[in-house]
Amino acid sequence: MNYNANMNYTLQEILIFIFGFLGTIVIGEILYYFLADKSLKTRTIPLKVITVIIVVLEIIKQIRELVVGYNLFAIPLHFCSLFVFLYPLACFSKGRFKGYAQTTATIFSLMVGIAYIFNPKLIIQDAGQTFFSRFGSFHTVVFHMLVYAYAVFSLFLNVYEAKIGRDMLVVCVSISIYWVIAIVASYSIGVNFNNVLKSGFPPFETFRQTYGNLPYLILIIPLFIMYGLANVYLYHLLNGLVNKRFYAKKRSNKKEEASY
What is the Cα–Cα distance from 203 to 187, expressed in whole angstroms? Predict the structure, then answer.
């Protein structure tokens, strides 16, 4: 995240964000209408499609980086880059590990999605301005919009049932593991993964410069975990509403079938 990005939106950016946000909701409603009464395997198809697109986009990005001269900032260890690994695990792995991956992928997607909804530029900076002219900008906008769509479709299609106690534990552990990786990687190669080395948010950066990096990390890591746990609770509430709607539709369909 870069809080120093220009927060004035161009018309192109506004149109991209509006069509992206509203379009995702509309597509979610359409998917719900056609897939709500289908099997879980069928309902996960949209998430698998998102997974394939995201992985392909990342592969193209990495190949381009290798061709033009690799920038270490392109290493997929940023928080948003985790979905390149999380989505395949959530969609294609099996057993208990699949459940852990689903929890992490879904809640992490919601965390990014909520931030993206409230202020897109905090996430993608000025990529919307050059969306049609630069692959890097196209990749950034589409990638994050797909992450948002993953969270929305997971809810609309009821593919993941929230269990608040389990999910809070899984998310807390997953975020903690990521922070360890981000800190080690950032200090090892000098790349600012997830604002480890410095913050783009002025109050946090002032705190870091005043008190040092260790107190700064001690401050922001718990806050990040708290944000993750808040999203677990939010998803739990939304999942409860979706469940009522989801099963109401199934009961309605059964009544219609019985009337024939």
Answer: 22
